[in-house]
Amino acid sequence: KDIGSNPVFLNADTHDYILGLTSHLPYVVSLSLFYYLMKKDHGNLFDFAGSGLRDVTRIASGDPMMSYGFVKTNKEKIKGFLAEYIETLKEFLSTIESDDFLHVAEVVKKRRDKIW
């Protein structure tokens, strides 16, 4: 508390669930996006990248040993969340194909704005 934190006591399963969704999954998504772009880069792709890409992939620059630790110890939850997230990406692909993307983007923006 002296350093501005708010300690919360959780059992291990709840901790792994919450951190899997709010920390581990975002890290893996950021890392995988940057990895995908690295495979597509043939020399100057990142010369055209702006702050949006930098923001989305910032956490991919985290300490690999730390991320290896949480991926190894929370592997099953991360795998499950990643599989569900892949399904969400497929849903987003459908919204683009059906021209419903704007509606979904507006709904997500409103919810995110309420949080932050």
Automatic annotation (TrEMBL):
Pfam families assigned: PDH_C (PF20463)
InterPro entries reported for this sequence: 6-PGluconate_DH-like_C_sf, PDH_C, Preph/Arog_dehydrog, Prephen_DH
GO MF annotations in UniProt: NAD+ binding; prephenate dehydrogenase (NAD+) activity; prephenate dehydrogenase (NADP+) activity
Residue ranges of domain Prephenate/arogenate dehydrogenase in the record: 1-116
One GO process term, biological-process aspect: tyrosine biosynthetic process
Signal peptide: none
Membrane-spanning residues: 17-37
Record keywords: Membrane, Oxidoreductase, Transmembrane, Transmembrane helix
Gene3D superfamilies given in the database record: 6-phosphogluconate dehydrogenase C-terminal like domain
Domain of life: Bacteria
Name by which UniProt lists this protein: Prephenate dehydrogenase
Lineage, top ranks: Bacteria, Pseudomonadati, Caldisericota/Cryosericota group, Caldisericota, Caldisericia
